[in-house]
């Protein structure tokens, strides 16, 4: 990693630790990363900062002013605006003096960019693994840069001003980041935030405020190109702080490293990542480091159990080997603790391992019948459950409390990578237990002679056993289990240590009281493949010996892709395959990706139909995005959890659904002529092509209304007269069902109708709207 001033400016609040922390955010991808971008980024492509824009707009309007008393008053107002330090006041005066059309025209001409230009830093930002950009600029640079940086990719979710329907839900969707022009888009001057009153209206908008809150709650937020004097940012941070919200994952990448800026950052819970003042090239280099970031590693020391010094290890290795097995375990642990405490993992420690190798081997001994067998302060109770790396035994401590004791297989102790993985797993459990994360098995203690870890004993069955016993019988079971699993994993990802499980499968999930659904509780087990921030994550390739590989992401099975296995999108794959198992009730066999995608859609129709008819399609679509071979197309855990909760709520009470994106899918599912047809996903909707040649698009438009477009292109092989009046039939049927028709035309054998619902339609209206759309489609002549 490059070092020196190009990354760390000399500031009290700027430390290498903060830079490493942000680098790890990009490496681990545990939470969606959202960039909040200000004018400093646009400056890099030659666009003016706000002060310079004020001067240029004033000059433009002054140059257009005509002689006369009225013009003199305008000139005086413009000159006062040019001298005004408060930019909000300055732009308000300019708008008043020049008139809105002239004011808007001047700004558009100054901020206009060529879409074929190079967009420098913007392009580098879009190449980062981000969920999206909140743009505080009104220029089009971020929009054009996306197309260049991600050529051939699906278009970004694009939102302007207060048009935020579905934005928060789509954060972390995978493959499709968002671009939110919070202060408006250049070509739509009605969307601009140019005055303090504009800003207050925008931030007080209920949907805008809720979306900002959701983004900050669910994401790691990084400010770039903004300063402490930016009132828009200050207002947002002040509002969040007034609600008692505090965050550890907000970063400010800046060359403002003075005491005032440090104070601002501290007051707003923002961590500063500084670079040398005025050195834009340093910022570019820093962003490129983020784009290729890999988790930093830190070597862990092994754990050993203390027995209070009461068991001494003989100097003679032969004498030690003749000791009682459990006494020997205690003596070896006491000696290992003494050496490591004195000199760490030194030559002395490795000489100890070599000298007492036969005794260490014996410490792993277990009799054929283990009931009541003493083992490291516990009495094992039965033969236990075999896992990929060892066996788990129920065991009683000296107070007859029951615990689970996992003992690693003896043959693994010479496998350095395996032992490092074991230590990582133990440390991950310690982290989760320290935070008290619900749904994660609680760590008790551990040792490496022999390698064992003690956990709370979970009464119940694995998720695999619950499914095998046919206890998952309806959509409510699937959705409640799936959403709870995603919620638990998301909680681990959200810790500052960013714990990633990397082995999510039905056998590693326990369900308490499996025969009583109302008492189901989900607990995640088995952290042998887990990792976290700064873990020693040397490559450990999984194979069949670690369990069925169908739940492991492709990057976990390939040495060429092993670097990709160190981030949270690996868990998205495991959860996706587990979601498939829940509805299909069979182990996934993922051979041909295209065929398996079809199999997922078939499997999701196993259960009796939900009152929310689009549930199977939407659930299948989520699974297929989770198990995408291309990691960048997978959704984050926060998106998975939010989607499953939304589907669960829709299933339980369809009449309460308000999300327009969900309503679009449901409208398609309830419209018989198109419900079983293949469709193409569009921005905020779908497109269906009918046998007749009619193209039907259904999508979300402004103010959360649903728009339908029926289009029949002219066909030279068909007589014009046979299509006469088609657009009138469509219009009549749609109006009868409550659609508002805004455009209707038909000429030369072509027909075109655009209609929409009222803003934010209710689910209860869908049957009537779907029936009308179906009647309109059925009114199309067949050939």
Explain how this protein is built:
By secondary structure, the protein is an alpha+beta fold. It folds into 5 domains: 16-46 and 117-291, 3-Layer(aba) Sandwich (Rossmann fold); 50-111, no CATH class; 317-456, Phosphorylase Kinase, domain 1; 461-652, Transferase(Phosphotransferase), domain 1 (Orthogonal Bundle), CATH 1.10.510.10; 662-778, Yope Regulator, Chain: A, CATH 3.30.1460. A 7-stranded parallel β-sheet has the order 3-4-2-1-5-6-7, sandwiched between helices. Strands 8, 9, 10, 11, 12, 13 and 14 form a 7-stranded antiparallel β-sheet that branches. α3 packs across α6 (100-111) and α7 packs parallel to α14 (280-291). The longest helix is centred in the middle third of the chain and has 20 residues, at 416-435. It starts with 15 loop residues before the first helix and ends in a 5-residue tail after the last helix. Residues 1-14 have low confidence and may be disordered.
What structural keywords apply?
23 strands, Phosphorylase Kinase, domain 1, alpha+beta, single chain, seven-stranded antiparallel β-sheet, seven-stranded parallel β-sheet, globular, Rossmann fold, 783 residues
What value does the average pLDDT take?
Answer: 87
- What is the CATH third-level topology name of the largest domain? Rossmann fold
Distance, first to last CA = 66 Å
Shape: globular
Question: What level of helicity do the residues show?
Answer: 40-55%
Amount of beta strand: 5-15%
How many structural domains in the coordinates? 5
Number of helices: 29
Please outline the major beta sheet.
Answer: 7 strands, parallel
Quick one: CATH class of the largest domain?
Alpha Beta
Going across the biggest sheet, name each strand in turn: 3-4-2-1-5-6-7
Which architecture of the largest domain would the CATH scheme give at its second level? Answer: 3-Layer(aba) Sandwich
Give the class from helix and strand content and strand pairing.
alpha+beta
CATH superfamily of the largest domain: TPP-binding domain
Annotation, overall tally of beta strands: 23
**Low-pLDDT ranges:** 1-14
